[in-house]
Amino acid sequence: MSEKNLIVDARDGVAVVTVNRPDKLNALNDRTMEELDAAFQGLADDPAVRGVILTGAGEKAFVAGADIGELSAQSPVQGQERSLRGQKVLDRIEGLGKPVIAAINGFALGGGCELALACHVRVAAEGARLGTPEVKLGIMCGYGGTQRLPRLVGRGRALEMLLTGEMVDAQEALRIGLVNRVVPKEKLLEESQSLLRKMLANGPLSLRFTLDAVARGLEMPLDQAQAHEATLFGLICTTEDMKEGTRAFLEKRPPRFQGR
Ligand code: COA
C-alpha cells in the first residue's frame, strides 16, 4: 500500500511505515495524520502484520513536527480539535497490540518527538536530534507530549526539554532514557528490524497482553494495576500458545506460537 504522504511496506510479518514528505522534513500535516490513522487501523486488523517500524523518508528527519503552516492559521476551536485528533492517532499507535519501534533517522521534533514517544521502543541513528520546540513558536505540545515525556524520562528532565524547547542529541537522549539505543545511521533499519524480530520470536498474545499491562497499568494505582496484570495472566493461561511455550521448553525444542 502506498499513500501520498505515507509508505507502508509489509513483508515477513513486519510493516515498515515511512512518513514521506522529505521536502518538508516529514512534517505532520492533517493529511498525513489521517493517513497514519488509517494505516495503523489497517495494521491492527491485519493478522499477517506482527510488528511495526515507523521511520521518516530522506536523510534529515524522522518528523520535524506538526505542519507549522497549518498551525499558524488555526482558530482556538480548530486547535483543540487538532490536538484531540492527533492524540487519538497516537493513542491508536500506542494501543496497536503489536510492538511498534520508532527508527529515528534524524530530527524528531514537536509532534515528531510525540510520535516517537507513542511508539513502544525508540532506536535513534547517530546524529538524530530530539526535542519539543513548540514553546519557541508560542504554542505547546498537543499530541500527548506533556504526558508521555515525563512518564518516560521523569518530570524534571521532561520539564527542562518542554520549557527550554532545546533539542537533545542522540547520546543525551540515550542517557536520559528518551531512546533505547543509538546505532550508526546506515544500520538504523537493520538494527530496528533485529530488535523487533527478537520480540516477534515470542508469543504474540504474550506481547499484546504485556503491552496492555504496562500501558494501562501505569495509569492505575499499584493494587489495581497488579489485579489487571493477574487477570491478563489468567487469560494467557487459557491460550494454546501457553501450552505450546511451556511444552516446548520441557521437550527442549523451539516453540511454534500461533497467536491463539
Ligand atoms: N512544519 C512545516 N514545514 C516544516 C517544518 C514543520 N514543522 N519543519 C521543516 N519544515 C520545512 C521548512 O519550512 C522547509 O520548507 P521550504 O523548503 O519549503 O522552505 C523545509 O521543511 C526544510 O526545512 P529547513 O528549515 O529549511 O531545514 P533546516 O535544515 O534549515 O532546519 C530544522 C531544520 C528542523 C531545525 C527546522 O526545519 C525547524 O526548526 N523546523 C521546525 C521544527 C519545529 O518547531 N517543530 C515543532 C512544530 S509544532
Give the gist of this structure.
The protein is an alpha/beta fold. Helices cover 48% and strands 16% of the residues.
Instruction: Tell me the fraction of residues in β-strands, as a range.
Output: 15-25%
Structural class call reads: alpha/beta
The beta-strand count equals 10
How can the largest sheet be summarized? 6 strands, mixed
Could you tell me how far the N terminus lies from the C terminus, measured between alpha carbons in angstroms?
Answer: 27 Å
Overview of this structure, please?
The chain has 260 residues and is an alpha/beta fold. It is 48% helix and 16% strand. The chain is built from eleven helices and ten strands. The protein has helices at residues 30-45, 68-72, 76-94, 111-118, 145-153, 155-164, 170-175, 188-200, 204-217, 222-236, 240-250, and strands at 6-11, 14-19, 51-56, 61-63, 100-104, 107-109, 121-125, 129-131, 168-169, 181-183. A six-stranded mixed sheet has the order 1-2-3-5-7-10, sandwiched between helices. It has a four-stranded mixed sheet with strand order 4-6-8-9. Strand 1 and strand 2 form a beta hairpin. Helix 1 (30-45) runs parallel beside helix 3 and helix 9 (204-217) runs antiparallel to helix 10. It is globular, with a radius of gyration of 19 Å. It starts with 5 loop residues before the first strand and ends in a 10-residue tail after the last helix. The model has no long low-confidence stretch (mean pLDDT 96). Residues 24-25, 27, 64-69, 107, 109-111, 133-134, 137 line the site of coenzyme A.
